[in-house]
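Q: Structure tokens for this one, please.
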Amino acid sequence: MASVHSLTLHAPAKLNLFLHLVGRRADGYHLLQSVFQLIDWCDTLHLKRISENEICRVNPIPGVLPQDDLVVRAANLLKDFCKVDYGVEIDLQKEIPMGAGMGGGSSDAASTLIGLNALWNLHLSTEALCSLGLKLGADVPFFIFGKNAFIEGIGGKIEAISLPTLYFLVIFPNRGIATASIFQDPELTRDHSQITIDSFLASPGSYQSNDCQAVAMRICPEVKQALDWITQAVPDAQPRMSGSGSSVFTVLEPNTDIATLENLLQNLPEGWVGRVVRGLNKNPAYNLISSK
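A: Here is the predicted structure, written as tokens:
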């Protein structure tokens, strides 16, 4: 790939099909179990290799400082680790809402590492990229791993899982929730019984709870409002929150009238964002769209 000087990658969001908190380590990190489902709600990342020895961020996100920008941090981390002596121009087009519990920032960081590994001809293994990604956030290794997965521990134990291709209704009620505010809450339940990957596969419909949801609804009333909206719009829906919120979702039955549902989404409360999305089996960041 020596002749490739630019790449365009799609960085997908994820949904937590369930989220159980099963303990807490002495250092404060929470132990969890979850199934992460990739979806086709994506940010778009443009990377252009440059001869200057610097990381250039084009069109930065308003209000986000460079030192807090995960794509800049990812690029600098990889550059320092591999002692790269040239640079990159990064342009990120955001579609995934920030603070939505769908892993947008982590996915952007993962796609940056995946893309620069190719663009800079570094040839690092997936395992090496995952180790670097963990320095940026607990969810980053999952997106580098690139497949739907059963997640355990603090997020680092990742086992591929085969999921049927489903459609989901996802709603972001225009208010993000800081993950720390959820996990530091004294009322958070942290003693969920552990399950096995086999028990989930045998009866996935039995595992649809999110242990962060009750705290999130108290901190952010919009979460409950979004859950109620789905319940009214989709008969027999079993909506729940993704991650630490505030986005909520439900699985759509095969006979769902998607056109009618998308018309209903035009009448969401002001500022809310809703989409019908499809589950993915692989992170599309690995389908490198290149230009010479």
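A few notes: DSSP finds nine helices and eleven strands in the chain. The domain at 1-292 is CATH 3.30.230.10 (Ribosomal Protein S5; domain 2).
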